[in-house]
Design a protein that fits this description.
The complex is a heterodimer. Chain A is α/β, with parallel strands linked by helices. Chain A is built from 11 helices and 21 strands. Chain B is built from 3 helices and 3 strands. The chains are: A alpha/beta, B alpha+beta.
Chain lengths: 442, 101
């Protein structure tokens, strides 16, 4: 596949934000946040105020406006990663961030009446792209705080765009601690990136590998709690996380294999206390949620999982588990999470008092029979043909495909009979209780 | 007879395809939440990557795979002689960083 097919039409610089298929895909995941970011963000110049160096990575204000229009009109919010390398030319010993281009962009944004939920500064600053030290980043965050407070001086801080950093892996504990200690008054959220799930299907359904983020993320949250206990109104976010490192690997989409990893990490991170989880990517790269090279931006199996999660799962997180009985199947291959239900936008049914379980069968060949507490309805995904890398999924036995207009198919539940849920190999179930008796979800 | 053999073979094949299943029970403490997420908890990214960068990424003069974007942003930042003091773990250069446990 030629390189331009990997990202060409999906690059932020090139994407057509008026594209009806893009908008359908964004709308079906609302309310969400669209994060614009990635390694190249630190080399983007904003074409406002006539910057002298707006080269190949130059964001026009027409594209900026189009991005906002798409975000707002699909019911979403914007998280925008600003460049933290503007003005820095190390071999000329220019090491201070020049905030003028970011300030010009944000002033223009305010002038146009556009909304930004959050601005981030710098993408993976410890990487070989940036070689930024924590001291440098702390200084830059102080500058950005001044810029945001100046531009939005007419509204209280709670109404200004939030600032998040440092967008690195949680294992970089020293760097994170430095940033939290040095920027406690500047930051509104602490964001990290997480990729460690490998590029082969087997690693995406390996329970040990799925649990790897537990220790570093818990440590990060402990650091936030101890170093910045009250300042971070946004909390801790995984604002870039994907099934496999590097967008051009493994050279093809792994299709359904991303779905169990994705649903598991959504449950796991919520349990750990992560407030937002932003999936890399909606479009672009082999791991995208949609096939953006297709005319209809055909959703991949994990996109359908995302839609179900968005429709069903609410904000309250419960302590939950699947208790396997001794038997022939490895009990670690069954994973379960529970959250309060969201109000059903399809039917208008209240989510009050109801619980939604996400149950994931990581076994490629063994089914599970799962006892559900009380009456419930279920949406059960499985790979078409039982193939872990299938490009399509079935929901309750029906293959999921968009119609000729690119609209999603009906995604109806089935009743769980006799309190027993049949979960096929590689099955992912969203199970919503019928009664509204969960005290935590009232 | 042939039909019976075929039927037996199909049954055996089905038995291999779907192993004996497990049984489990779902449990949750529904009296209190342990955490709360944003309504927009599940969110998504778009990236800046484009073909120019992809080509840059593969330049042979960056053996560790790290582009300098010199031809893109026209503001090259030569790699320092020594790594950042914060580069304490191996890095994967790209759109994202992988955690190396």
């Amino acid at each position: 596949m030629p390189a331009q097919r990997r990202w060409g039409g999906a690059s932020v610089l090139a994407v057509n934000f008026s594209d009806s298929m893009l908008r359908k895909r964004m709308q079906d995941l609302s309310p969400s946040f669209l994060r614009i970011g990635g390694s190249a963000q630190d080399f983007v110049v904003y074409d406002v105020g006539s910057p002298p160096d707006c080269g190949d990575l130059c964001l026009s204000m027409d594209q900026w406006q189009a991005m906002h229009d798409a975000v707002n009109e699909t019911g979403n919010g914007l998280v925008f990663g600003l460049s933290d390398l503007y003005g820095i030319v190390r071999h000329e010993h220019k090491t201070d961030w020049n905030s003028s281009n970011a300030r010009a962009l944000l002033k223009e944004t305010k002038r146009r009446g556009l909304q930004i939920d959050t601005v981030a500064l710098g993408n993976e600053p410890t990487s070989c792209f940036s070689y930024t030290t924590s001291k440098d980043l702390i200084a830059r965050l102080g500058q950005l705080r001044t810029v945001v407070d100046d531009v939005w001086s007419d509204v209280p801080r709670s109404a200004r765009p939030m600032i998040t950093a440092p967008d690195i892996a949680p294992a970089y504990g020293d760097f994170l601690s430095d940033i939290l200690a040095g920027s406690a008054g500047q930051l509104d959220a602490c964001s990290f990136h997480y990729y460690d799930n490998g590029n082969v299907p087997g690693s995406l359904i390996d329970p040990e590998r799925l649990d790897r983020p537990v220790a570093p993320v818990l440590q990060l949250i402990r650091n936030v709690t101890s170093l910045a206990p009250s300042a971070l109104r946004g909390g801790v976010w995984a604002d870039e996380t994907g099934p496999a490192g590097n967008a051009y690997l493994p050279g093809r989409s792994l299709g359904y294999a991303y779905a169990p990893w994705f649903v598991d990490q959504l449950g796991l991170f919520a349990t750990l206390g992560v407030r937002r989880m932003m999936r890399q990517t909606l479009a672009g790269g082999y791991y995208a949620l949609v096939d953006w090279n297709s005319t209809l931006w055909e959703p991949r199996p994990d996109y359908y999982a995302a839609v179900l999660h968005k429709r069903l799962v609410g904000t309250g997180v419960l302590s939950a588990a699947a208790r396997p009985q001794p038997g022939p199947v490895n009990g670690t291959l069954l994973r379960a999470y529970a959250q309060c239900a969201r109000e059903d936008r399809q039917t208008g049914a209240s989510g009050r008092g109801r619980v939604v379980w996400t149950v994931i069968n990581l076994s490629e060949d063994a089914p599970w029979s799962v006892t559900v507490p009380g009456a419930a309805e279920a949406w059960v995904l499985r790979p078409t043909g039982g193939n872990i890398t299938s490009m399509t999924a079935q929901l309750n036995g029906n293959t999921l495909l968009v119609n000729a207009d690119g609209d999603l198919p009906p995604m109806e539940p089935v009743a769980v009979t006799s309190d027993r849920l049949a979960l096929p190999p590689l099955g992912i179930a969203f199970v919503r209780t019928r009664d509204g008796t969960a005290a935590a979800c009232q | 007879m042939l039909r019976a053999v075929t039927c037996l073979a199909l049954v055996l094949a089905a038995g291999r395809a779907v192993a004996t299943g497990g049984q489990a029970t779902l449990e949750a403490n529904t009296t209190a939440t342990i955490a709360s997420v944003d309504p927009g908890y599940l969110s998504f990214n778009l990236d800046w990557w484009d073909p120019v960068q992809m080509a840059e990424y593969k330049r042979p003069d960056y053996p560790d795979g790290c582009p300098r974007f010199a031809s893109i942003a026209n503001r090259g930042s030569p790699r320092p002689a020594r790594p950042s003091p914060h580069r304490r773990r191996p890095l994967s250069c790209g759109t994202e960083m992988r955690l190396v446990a």
